[in-house]
Amino acid sequence: MKRKYEGVYVLNMQGQEEGVEEMVGNITKELESSGATLDQIDRLGRKEFAHANHAKQNHGFYVQFQFEAEPSAIDGVEARLKLNEQVMLQHYRRI
User: Fold this and answer.
1) Which residues of 37-58 are buried (b: 16+ CB within 10 A; e: fewer)?
2) Which of 36, 52, 62, 85 is most buried per CB count within 10 Å?
3) How far is CA 93 from CA 10, 55, 64, 80, 88, in A?
4) What is the DSSP letter of 2?
5) Of 70, 73, 63, whose CA–CA distance to 27 is shortest?
6) Per-residue pLDDT for 16 more than 80?
7) Beta carbons of 30 and 95 less than 8 angstroms apart
């Protein structure tokens, strides 16, 4: 049974802000290929971090997705996006 989820992604687009739409498209394809139905995509924009991370980055581009998917699909999407160096952080929660 499909459930509603919210996914928040922090993208490492330092020096490549023009590539944000391409990355949003890649995340959309990953979700749709796992059987998810997208409801909404919000581009929250570039945000400064309170503390620099291990790669000495001080900001990231935040994107929020709302979608419906099978619970088992979340693990697959998360594993595939971990391999993408431009996805610094991803978090999912049921809504």
Assistant:
1) eeeeeeeeeeeeeeeeeeeeee
2) 36
3) 15, 26, 11, 18, 17
4) -
5) 63
6) no
7) no
Task: List % helix, strand, coil for the chain (3-state, nearest 5).
Answer: 30, 40, 25
Distances (CA, A) of 91 to 6, 12, 16, 71: 8, 15, 22, 14
Strand partners, 8: 64, 91
Express each pLDDT in 33-51 by its tens digit: 999 999 999 999 999 888 7
Q: HEC profile for 13-38?
A: CCCCHHHHHHHHHHHHHHHHHCCCEE
Output the six-digit token pair for 94.
């049921």
